Amino acid sequence: MSQARIVYLNGEFLPYAEAKVPVMDRGFLFADGIYEVSAVLSGRLVDNAAHLARLDRSLGEIGIRNPHTGAEWLALQTDLVARNGLGEGLLYMQVTRGVFERDFAFPPAGTPPTVMMFTQAKTIGANPLAETGAAIVTVPDLRWKRRDIKSVALLAQVIAKQQAAEAGVAEAWMVEDGAVTEGSSSTAFIVAGDRIVTRPLSHALLPGITRLAVMRLAEEEGLTVEERLFSVEEAMGADEAFYTSASSFVMPVVRIDGTTVGDGRPGPLSRRLRALYLAMARETLE
Ligand code: PDD
């Protein structure tokens, strides 16, 4: 854990060790809060307006007022990235319902939300895993029924990712009623011929920002995007599989529960979409 980091907390840029949140913070007690993650390339933010729009929506869905306009967020984000000298990595943003005596119902209107941001250095563009492709495992989806909200309540995903770690793989895809919902921190895709298949948006999964960008790029490439449910068996037998997120962009999947997908190497469409996404991201940095 880098102690040298500068953290943004409630209007202040503080050394990591001084950025403290009271134990009565509702994020700590109830996971009563929302988060977002934007990627940073060349010291600038990737597809950030869409992440800020989703942050605003998530907050609205649980009745926390958004403490900042988009322009204010961007100014704070840019400042934090610069203060940390971050070239490539992630910017994490979190807003909780604030600090109040423990009580399940909301605190009085006017209780200020807790607003926090930090950065993490990470190689996303030249990630060596994208060259070999990732192995994944599948796990039951243990989550609540509003997964479209980017809630900080991530216990089911923590358990899923731990199962992946114990299996020595990078990601876990969660499965419900025989269909893949999404990755523990990513959106799941399969490729069948010239068709890209991913689950349609609903309360069952997060509306991935990278998902939308990749769907648009695929369509521009003349591929057909099919939004429908698919099973683990279909994914295992697909031509290709991949997952998308702000922290991995487009990650080819080469093994699912030990079964090889395609020829066991990143497929041509997965590689192409990764390259297209990187090019698009680099051209549209904020
Ligand atoms: N997670 N689904 C889930 C459950 C996620 O947590 C994420 C992202 C995604 C992909 O969304 P996007 O393309 O907007 O990053 C899908 C972030 C990266 C995280 O929790 O670190």
What is the topology?
Layout: E1 6-9, E2 12-15, H1 26-30, E3 33-41, E4 44-45, H2 48-61, H3 70-83, E5 89-96, E6 114-121, H4 129-132, E7 134-140, H5 155-166, E8 171-176, E9 179-183, E10 187-192, E11 195-198, H6 209-220, E12 224-227, H7 232-236, E13 240-245, E14 249-256, E15 259-260, H8 268-283
Parallel strand pairs: 7-8, 7-14, 11-12
Antiparallel strand pairs: 1-2, 1-6, 3-4, 3-5, 5-6, 8-9, 10-11, 10-13, 13-14, 14-15
N-(5'-phosphopyridoxyl)-D-alanine binds near residues 37, 185, 206, 244 and 247.
What integer is the average pLDDT?
97
Shape: globular
Q: Which small-molecule ligands are present, each listed once?
A: N-(5'-phosphopyridoxyl)-D-alanine
The share of residues in extended strands comes to 25-35%
User: Which value, in Å, is the CA radius of gyration?
Assistant: 19 Å
Taking the sheet with the most strands, its summary is: 9 strands, mixed
Task: Provide the descriptors you would attach to this structure in a database record.
29% strand, globular, 286 residues, binds N-(5'-phosphopyridoxyl)-D-alanine, alpha+beta, 8 helices
Textual characterization of the structure:
This protein has helices spanning 26-30, 48-61, 70-83, 129-132, 155-166, 209-220, 232-236, 268-283, and strands at residues 6-9, 12-15, 33-41, 44-45, 89-96, 114-121, 134-140, 171-176, 179-183, 187-192, 195-198, 224-227, 240-245, 249-256, 259-260. It is α+β, with helices and mostly antiparallel strands and 286 residues long. The strands form 2 sheets. Strands 7, 8, 9, 10, 11, 12, 13, 14 and 15 form a 9-stranded mixed β-sheet that branches. The protein has a 6-stranded antiparallel β-sheet with strand order 2-1-6-5-3-4. β3 and β4 form a beta hairpin. The protein starts with 5 loop residues before the first strand and ends with a helix. The model has no long low-confidence stretch (mean pLDDT 97). The structure holds N-(5'-phosphopyridoxyl)-D-alanine. N-(5'-phosphopyridoxyl)-D-alanine binds next to α6 and β13.
